[in-house]
Amino acid sequence: MMAAAVPQLAPTTKPAQAPLSYRLGRRLNEYARLTRLDRPVGTWLLLWPALWALWIAGAGRPTPRVLIVFVLGVVVMRAAGCVINDFADRDIDPHIRRTRDRPLAARRVSWAEALVLFALLIAAALYLVTRLNSLTVKLACIGAALTVSYPFVKRFFPLPQLYLGLSFGGWSVLMAYAAQTGLLPRVAWVLYIAAVIWAVVYDTIYAMVDREDDLKIGVKSSAILFADMDRFLIGVMQAMMLYALVLVGRSMQFGRWYGAGVATTLVLFLWQQWLIRKREPAGCLRAFLNNQYVGLVVFVGILLQYVYAA
What is the 3-class SS of the chain, one letter each residue? Predict the structure, then answer.
């Protein structure tokens, strides 16, 4: 009599682990999203005022080393600002449609990872700024403190867009003048004011995208504070920025090329007003994104002014 066959059990196997290169690539992708490297519009919005100031302070020929440091510094500091902002908002972002898929909000990146990344970015920024003069280093330290405090100030300050403009949107103007000339003349402060007002304009438009969600969770914003006067007050601030740019032009005795840049800015502002006329999130987002061209046309006007006036 033949012995009964013994059933063979299938060998237990662990799921194949993804290759290290794949896992590393996924991690780096999450870090890129956390620092908004996939969304460079914010970097351009911060870089344009620095370029305005560098070209004016350098009389159309900024020092190459200073230019390189500022371009890299803006990229690094914008990334650091995004990381600390998302760290502060990690329990708020999941409740907002536009931000719920951010790496920290979705818990794909831990808060500890975010803080380590932030520290590395700040260290890189400090290294870059130490290549410049002492006045610029002092201003950079103040600017870094203001930038880090912004995500927490917006918890209680009813106009956080103004704080953003003062701390992040325009601070590079003062630093650029300090780095290029070692001085902060009156025209630098006027240009700083123009950059601050512009930051309040575009960030208020951006806040209009999230207004309904922000109202539900109690987040402060100028869009909420301005209520149904938002379009009017944005228009007032747009006019103020244009006037500040005109004052810069008069102070520097700029001519038609710069004037053409300011005039084109007016056209772009009118287009933004049209886009936000119904206060629809999609239209407000388009108006916000349009501001990268505002910075561009002002810079082109400054650039051409020096090229053809030489």
Answer: CCCCCCCCCCCCCCCCCCCHHHHHHHHHHHHHHHCCCCCCHHHHHHHHHHHHHHHHHCCCCCCHHHHHHHHHHHHHHHHHHHHHHHHHCCCCHHHCCCCCCCCCCCCCCCHHHHHHHHHHHHHHHHHHHCCCCHHHHHHHHHHHHHHHHHHHHCCCCCCHHHHHHHHHHCHHHHHHHHHHHCCCCHHHHHHHHHHHHHHHHHHHHHHHHCHHHHHHHCCCCHHHHHHHHHHHHHHHHHHHHHHHHHHHHHHHCCCHHHHHHHHHHHHHHHHHHHHCCCCCHHHHHHHHHHHHHHHHHHHHHHHHHHHHHC
